[in-house]
């Protein structure tokens, strides 16, 4: 019985370390990305998971219409947005013309 408690006592700190170093940061990152996706609006510059840089042209509940070049528009699912690019770090404007 004593061996069970001593081995359990050794595993509890390991579980706590895994929680605070791995699981909790992932949950926070996921929550932050969901908030970012909820705030998307027309004119935002984005990068998709596939690396396509674009500007949002139309926002719907589960999808976005993006413009990847002058006059070239396509639809994509909202959850495929990887990041929203700020104006000062954007190379989308250079690509658009």
| Fraction of residues in β-strands | 25-35%
Rounded average pLDDT: 86
The first-level CATH class of the largest domain is given as Mainly Beta
Question: Low-confidence stretches at least 5 residues in length (pLDDT < 50)?
Answer: 90-97
CATH topology of the largest domain: SH3 type barrels
Largest sheet: 5 strands, antiparallel
Descriptive notes:
It is a single chain. By secondary structure, the protein is an alpha+beta fold. It folds into 2 domains: about 1-40; about 40-95, SH3 type barrels (Roll). It is built from 2 helices and 5 strands. It has a 5-stranded antiparallel sheet. Strand 3 and strand 4 (about 70-75) form a beta hairpin. It is rod-shaped and about 70 Å long. Residues about 90-95 have low confidence and may be disordered.
Topology:
Elements: H1 2-38, E1 45-48, E2 53-59, E3 63-69, E4 72-77, E5 81-85, H2 92-96
Antiparallel strand pairs: 1-2, 1-5, 2-3, 3-4
Supply the key terms.
SH3 type barrels; alpha+beta; 43% helix; 97 residues
Quick overview:
The chain is an alpha+beta fold and 97 residues long.
